Amino acid sequence: MSKTLAAVTFGEPMAMFYANEVGELHEVTSFTRAIAGAESNVAVGLSRLGHRTGYVTKLGKDHLATFILNAQNKEAIDTSCVSFSEEQPTGILMKSKVVNGDPKVEYFRKNSAASALSVADFDEAYFGSAGHLHATSISAALSASTREFTFHAMEFMKKQGKTVSFDPNLRPVLWSDKDTMVRTINELAAHCDWFFPGISEGAVLTGSDNPENIADFYLELGVSLVVVKLGPEGAYYKTRTDEGVVPGFKVKHVVDTVGAGDAFATGVISGMLENLGIPEAVRRGNAMGALAVMSPGDMDGLPTRPQLEHFFAKGI
How far from the centroid of its chain's Cα atoms is residue 229's Cα? Predict the structure, then answer.
């Protein structure tokens, strides 16, 4: 690569069809097409804030893949390491529209092209050109080969002296059983520097719903920063030498909660890459999470730099 990347991530981007009207998915008559995928959301978020970001995946040779690539390229994401499958399709999901609570999501991703991503697709030069890696457990849940890829990528970047962030992004439906999910995610967490569990995720993964206990569990595994998302209340962070709670931002009307965790991760990662203090990086994460829940699509609320500065200056 002629240019270095500020960050790189990998995963499964999907074509998302979200309902334009409230109701059960089988009753909805109109949908809007967009892109979904936790890691893709983070790539878009970092790119909009000016961090050159690479995204690695495998897509089908179909029109939805073209749609996804075009959209990511418009976001200035580097997709030069994306590969394609002749046999397997690009994944799809459908999402309902709700007045309150979380929307219903239905996936069509089994045996997708992204689930065939393997260590054979890992480009050491490409990943090595990046200063930071962001990963989630979703990739590890898709298949045995993507799980191996996830471990390989995180271990490689750590050995290269790069920083690694990890969001558990629990998706129990993708795992064979809870014990395998918990064991694998905690093994992966031991290979990261910055870990971002939600309070409920931490309870599942550690057996405690106390933010400090959750943080201590991962600090003992070797993680250097644990940030526990507390929902509207904000977030708790802890390192080996410091801890604190950063209040959240008040949101008048929640439109869609999906993607808020990815926006939060983007805010913290970008702040850390810019050498902000941890409380300020977490505050940025809280702000971006608030912006995300006020928008319908998974990445619609991810701000540009001027939009983020405006939010801090003017509020909602």
Answer: 14
Which pair of structure tokens corresponds to residue 1? 């690569």
Q: How far apart are CA 40 and CA 81, in angstroms?
A: 14
Q: Is the pTM of this model over 0.90?
A: yes
What tokens were used for 69? 């690539």
b or e along 209-230 (b: 16 or more beta carbons within 10 Å of the residue's beta carbon)? eebeebbbbbbeeebebbbbbb
Partners of 226 in beta bridges: 195, 238
Residue 235 near residue 280, CB atoms below 8 Å: no
Question: What is the chain's Cα-based Rg?
Answer: 18
Report whether 285 contacts 267 (CB < 8 A). Answer: yes
- Residues with a catalytic annotation lie at 262
Report, as an integer, the average pLDDT of 228-241: 96
Per-residue model confidence as pLDDT tens digits over 193-226 = 999 999 999 999 999 999 999 999 999 999 999 9
Token pair, residue 6, equals 């500020």
236 and 215 Cβ atoms separated by less than 8 Å: yes
Residue 233: half-sphere exposure toward Cβ, Cα within 13 Å: 11
Instruction: Report pLDDT digits (tens) over 245-293.
Output: 999 988 877 766 667 899 999 999 999 999 999 999 999 999 999 998 8
The token pair at 146 is 């993507």
| DSSP secondary structure, the chain, as one string | --S-BSEEEE---EEEEEEEEES-TTT---EEEEEE-HHHHHHHHHHHTT--EEEE-EEESSHHHHHHHHHHHHTT-B-TT-EEESSSPPPEEEEEE-SSSPPPEEEE-TT-SGGG--GGG--HHHHHTBSEEEEEHHHHHH-HHHHHHHHHHHHHHHHTT-EEEEE----GGGSS-HHHHHHHHHHHHTT-SEE--BHHHHHHHHS---HHHHHHHHHTTT-SEEEEE-GGGEEEEE-SS-EEEEE----S-----TTHHHHHHHHHHHHHHTT--HHHHHHHHHHHHHHHHTSSSSSTTPPPHHHHHHHHHH--
